[in-house]
Amino acid sequence: MPTLILKTRINASIEKCFNLSRSLDLHTESMKSHKEKVAGGKLTGLIDLGEQVTWQANHFWISFKMTNKITAMKKPFYFVDEMLKGPFKLLHHQHHFTALGAHTEMTDIFAFQSPMGLMGQAVDALFLKRYLHKLLTARNQFIKSVAELP
What we know:
This is Ligand-binding SRPBCC domain-containing protein. The protein is an alpha+beta fold.
């Protein structure tokens, strides 16, 4: 199963980084180019343990919906979101936060698997892993830019 690990160092407190990462409003803003918006579940604010959100988005010229649930959380150190329904066979996203003095290291561990067996594995290897890495990196840079505002 493909797994991405991204580390982002942010000049902001762990609490600020943790909350910005849970913000549905910030997520929507960061994904405007993909027309991503909330289509159900928790609609705005900070998502919390046990809550669900359904996203509607456009990727690869395809519109789809995906419902995710926060399945684990220890404030302000980590939370996990998992896809309940959507385009993947499996999606498990761990968000970890470590205080490093006045900085925070944000670590994403993003595991996913496309449906369709061998064909899905080929899609994952040929371009989806690279695409998702680029998407998560851009999102993390957006979080960083907001977190580092005075």
